[in-house]
Specification:
3-stranded antiparallel sheet, DNA-binding, 5 helices, 3 strands, alpha+beta, Arc Repressor Mutant, subunit A, 105 residues, homodimer
Amino acid sequence: MISKEEQLRAERRAHMFKALAHPMRIYFLEKLNEKSWCVCELAEEAGIPKSAASKHLSQLKDAGLVEDSKMGTRVEYQLTAPCVLKLAACAEGTVLNNRKKQLGF
Amino acid sequence: MISKEEQLRAERRAHMFKALAHPMRIYFLEKLNEKSWCVCELAEEAGIPKSAASKHLSQLKDAGLVEDSKMGTRVEYQLTAPCVLKLAACAEGTVLNNRKKQLGF
DNA sequence: CTCCTAGTTTCCATATTATGAAACATAGAA
DNA sequence: TTCTATGTTTCATAATATGGAAACTAGGAG
């Protein structure tokens, strides 16, 4: 049986990973790892409408991965959990290595 | 503009995170961090049908996070990327800390 | 062989998520 | 004030994901 605590922890973590489970949001996080960007800049860079960019950023914020600060009419987003990107790279490396081993290298 | 490389990397990582974006799959990974389990044991522990457990494990395998080995009619699953769980813990810690800061602690 | 157990796959219904356009809100400039 | 630029929200639709039951596959026991 799954305890209440286990369940809550799993849900918390799944919620965070859900925010990371989209190529555009990964791309945004990588851009934000360089410096702060506003919504319209990220939308422009990615070639998507502002409304879509805003919604993706809102999900990242909801997961606690970014913060926003309003500068006049602009809204700048900053990365709050840079370790996530480092660990993403690490995990991806492990996975790729495993795949190679499976193929006999 | 997003380069082809950036796009592919973002898609690879998003795919990995998508496999992590479900409470049951997080739970399974944590169980597999203890030792190997077969499908029916995990299904029993979680209180879900075997078919559902099998599908979740298949997704984890597809993302390269677990491997399976057949023992007669049983299929045992092993964790291949233990660092992923550390990632989860670290990221969650960072996120929780950020939330506390935002609340003024 | 038949029967049973363990897993996987398929089918279908439901629920969740993503998308773009348009409406809306707001701060600053003219 | 009006106009413009930036963001967010709403809406309808499309695409994915989930869940359970049942069909199907395969290995081992009798």
